[in-house]
Amino acid sequence: MDACWFIESKPAVSGQNADDTSFIGGRPGIPAGVDLPQCRLCGADLTFFYQVAFPAGHVWQSLSMAVFACTSCAHEEYLIPEMLTGVLAGTDIPQGFLTQYQRNFRIVVFETRSGEQRMDYTPKIRFNRLELVPSRKTATKRNKLGGKPNWLLDDESPATYASSVPMKFLMQWIEPPRFDLEDDAPAQIRLGLRGKPEPSRHRYYELFLGNQLYFFGTEAGHEPLVYVITQI
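RE: above sequence
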């Protein structure tokens, strides 16, 4: 069995530290030279949701992945990441797709050692540490790195990118589906019953409608690009 780690959320007893590498909310720990991403649909700063540092033994060891998404606008056609058409299992992802589809979200990948706490970002989601626990067991309803995806529905694993680069399973994110907010964070913009964007009444954010998320990445040695699949 491929190496597998469960991702455990640990309520933070103390505040965020400069050396934290896997966590929910707070300030992102991305390199100083990387601009904080903005939404390509509305121009607002994207909200930081979480990041994970991939451990030794993982296909992306020494890399980290930070997940940002817009909470300032809502468009019916972009509520979840754009999906490919046709049969998804074993598909080839066209060249350029993995950079073009990130319109109202951004996946930032970087060398873990180059990350630093970005004091120029105002936290919106409450900080919680993530602990990576090695395991040989399988679990259908847990966050995990590596191993094999535990699909909620049909297998949608892509095979390659640009006809030649193998795609590898990185991680799955099941919970939390809702992210608690800082007291002064603005409400998430959602589509109301009439299909118009409006502020949510709830004091939490959802990432891609709270769907279960499956992350695939290009094989080590190639430009690190991420394909996000949602299932509900």
